[in-house]
Amino acid sequence: MSSPKRAAKPARRPRPAEPLKQSAKRASAEAKLVAAAIARGIADGQLDVLSAEALQALIAAGCRLYTARREAGEEIAPVPKNAVSATDVMVTASALLRSADLAAFELGLWQGWTGR
User: Fold this and answer.
1) What is the maximum alpha-carbon separation in the chain?
2) HEC profile for 16-71?
3) Most buried among 28, 38, 81, 82, by the most CB within 10 A?
4) With pLDDT > 70 as the criterion, what percentage of the chain qualifies?
């Protein structure tokens, strides 16, 4: 006796390609909503507004996107002037260096070599 044939799943219809600008507008709007939720969470003392994994994913994606845009020639600051404190920058920069197994000395060397 042969086994019954599996019913083939119907092929999924591909979604129509969304124009890039529309996709970027939607992603930007969603990112601003997330940023606002994070700001409200901090103001309310709810530091767990994002899981550690979600926070790491956002920071990693932001780093990669920022680097790609800078390497493509775009002159853009990573944050608006006065949007974060010097302490915020130092804590984050130090942690980013540690996560990449780098020291501030190596950052200084790299900046000297590249002029960035």
Assistant:
1) 75
2) CCCCHHHHHHHHHHHHHHHHHHHHHHHHCCCCCCCCHHHHHHHHHHHHHHHHHHHH
3) 38
4) 83
Q: How far apart are CA 87 and CA 93, in angstroms?
A: 10
Closest CA to 93 of 108, 82, 80: 108
**Residue 45 backbone zone (phi > 0: left; psi -120 to 50: alpha; other: beta):** left
Confidence of residue 116 (pLDDT cuts 50, 70, 90): confident
Instruction: Count Cα neighbours of 41 within 13 Å in the Cβ-side half-sphere.
Output: 12
Could you please report the per-residue DSSP string of 93-113? Answer: HHHHHHHTT--HHHHHHHHHH
Mean pLDDT of the chain: 87
d(CA 93, CA 107): 10
Q: Which amino acid is residue 62, in one-letter code?
A: G
Of 70, 69, 76, the residue nearest 114 (C-alpha): 70
In three-state secondary structure terms, 5 is coil
